[in-house]
Amino acid sequence: LSTDSTTGARDHARSHVRTATMRIPATPPDVDPSRLLWAEAVPPGSYATRVLGRGTRLRLIDPDGGACAHLLLFRSEAPWERLNVADTMKVPWQAYLGAGHPLLSDQGRVLATVVADSSGHHDTLCGMTDAGGAKMLLAAIKHGLDIRDVAPSVSLFKGVRVGDDGTLGFTGSAGSGASVDLLPWWLRWSTPPTRWTPTRRSPASMCWPGAPAISSPPPSTTVPNTCVPC
Amino acid sequence: MTTTELTSVCEEVVDACAPWSAIVRAGQTLQIIDLHGNQAVDTLLYGVSGNQVDHTLRYSAQATVAAQRNIFLSTGSVLRAADGTPLMTIVADDVGNHDTIAGACSKESNTLRYGHHTVHQHACAENFLAEGAKWGLGKRDIVSNINFFMNVPVEADGTLGIDDGLSAAGKSLSLRADRDTLVLVSNCPQINNPCNGFDPTPVRMVISARCSSPKRLIAAQ
Question: What ipTM was assigned to the predicted interfaces of this complex?
Answer without folding.
Answer: 0.91
